[in-house]
Amino acid sequence: MKIKTRFAPSPTGNLHIGSIRTALYSWLFACKNQGKFVLRIEDTDLERSTKLSIEAILDSMNWLNLNWDEGPYFQTERLNRYNFIMNDMLLKKTAYKCYCSKERLTYLRQLQLIQKEKPKYDGYCRNNDKYHADNEPYVVRFSNPQTGTIIFNDLIRGTIQVKNQEMDDLIIRRTDGSYTYNFCAVIDDFDMEITHVIRGEDHINNTPRQINILKAIGAPIPYYAHVSMILGDDGKKLSKRHGAVSIMQYREDGFLPEALINYLIRLGWSYGDQEIFSIEEMKQLFSITAINKSASIFNIKKLLWLNHYYLNKLPAEYIAKHLIWHINKQGIDIKSGPKLIDLVNILNKRCKTLKEMAINCCYFYKDFIEFDDNAVKKYLCPIAIKSLHHIYKKLVILNDWTPTSIQLIIKKTADELHISINNICMQLRVAVTGLSKSPAIDVTLYTLGKLRSISHIEQALKLIVSKVK
Ligand code: GLU
């Protein structure tokens, strides 16, 4: 069997990690089995679907490198096909027109609730041959079998059965001519020859209905796998409160695609105790049956840990390619400073995200630095004039601008002035970076270069002097 999976998001809002995780699992399953992966945009809900949301889906998939073999298909472009199948179903009486008014349906529902029955359409129009004028509004309903049981083997959850009696004659086309999710998804899965439907557990209830429609149109039934929810650390539905954001926000926040993908695969799937997986390993090792049945708990600290791991593990050239996006966002012109690769190599140990790197590297590229008030208060007191001036004079005449020589000068200054190296380092750090945190000071000055280091110290000295006055 040629495996084919799909990711079928509705473009009605932000793309969240739960959705992208099912995309990842579908993609991996197709990759592992040399199959195909289809991207389908389920945009039949015209009121709620937006272009922005479609763009976010495509951007997210591209950013994460979840490349699709077919599509993107858009359901709004497939209306002729849906019309064709629906008309055929009407002819074969596996679907029927329902003219029931809103009032009747509301009354029916209330009655059923009073009688403690599950609200369900009573099939009034199923065999109703009454005459109706052409312009009389109607919906088209699926004629769900009334006896028997639907049994399917969920690849994650095992056997699931639902009695046909419990299922509604669901609407497949609304009065305004638009089609509903369950119908379109079924026709698409059939036409696109999907063999494995991997999706969120919120669709479990739809599966027996979809199987019935598939049977009615004589289509093969795919395998189904329903992936559990992702919850916040308080056990509640994941929301912004837990630090969960749209996929592209993770990019904004400075995460690498490798880190997010690695995080997502482990969030609900395991291979022994292994935490780190390269994409190649994922493709080899992934299996649907090892997906966890229970809900997963989102943990931003673990994601940050993985991001830090990948910032250090992946080649600096590669990290630099991702970093440039963030550097541009900070409005930094990198032509006037160190190469990005050098920057990555000195910042990757200290930073957990690319954004943090970009924010913390401004001083390398700017002639005039911004001094952090607290750092200035703490380290650039009048007493620092003497030590900074002392070291400044030595640095001005230093020709061998290397970390080792710079380190020697710092030591010498500390000895000559009888102050601690740590003290000198902190004063120098704030003087050249404006901040109280930076990579090792000798490496920082070396990377900053002689001219800029000297100019920054001059600015710091001026600042202290101006405060004394
Ligand atoms: N469009 C549906 C959703 O976004 C997915 C349906 C499916 O995978 O069958 O929830």
How would you explain this protein's 3D organization?
The chain folds into four domains: 156 residues, 3-Layer(aba) Sandwich (Rossmann fold), CATH 3.40.50; 94 residues, Glutamyl-tRNA Synthetase, Domain 3 (Glutamyl-tRNA Synthetase, domain 3, Alpha-Beta Complex), CATH 3.90.800; 49 residues, Helicase, Ruva Protein, domain 3; 103 residues, Arc Repressor Mutant, subunit A. The strands form five sheets. The protein has a three-stranded parallel sheet with strand order 1-2-3, with helices on one face. It is 47% helix and 11% strand. Helix 5 packs across helix 6. It has 469 residues and is mainly alpha-helical. The termini are far apart. The model has no long low-confidence stretch (mean pLDDT 95). The site of glutamic acid has 7 residues, from loops.
Overview in brief:
Its EC number is 6.1.1.17. This protein is mainly alpha-helical and 469 residues long.
Short key terms for the protein model shown above:
3-stranded parallel β-sheet, 469 residues, mainly alpha, Helicase, Ruva Protein, domain 3, Rossmann fold, Glutamyl-tRNA Synthetase, domain 3, binds glutamic acid
What's the tally of helices?
20
* Outline type: elongated
Question: Which structural class do the helices and strands define?
Answer: mainly alpha
The whole-number mean of residue pLDDT values reads 95
Please state the oligomeric state of the protein chains shown. Answer: single chain
Radius of gyration: 31 Å
Largest sheet: 3 strands, parallel
Question: How far apart are the termini?
Answer: 83 Å
E-strand count: 12
Task: Give the distinct bound molecules.
Answer: glutamic acid
- What CATH architecture label of the largest domain applies? 3-Layer(aba) Sandwich
> pLDDT below 50 for ≥5 consecutive residues: which ranges?
none
Mind telling me the CATH superfamily name of the largest domain? HUPs
Could you please say which CATH topology of the largest domain applies here? Rossmann fold
Strands across the major sheet, in which order? 1-2-3
Strand content: 5-15%
Protein name: Glutamate--tRNA ligase
Family: Belongs to the class-I aminoacyl-tRNA synthetase family. Glutamate--tRNA ligase type 1 subfamily.
EC number: 6.1.1.17
Pfam family, one: Anticodon_2
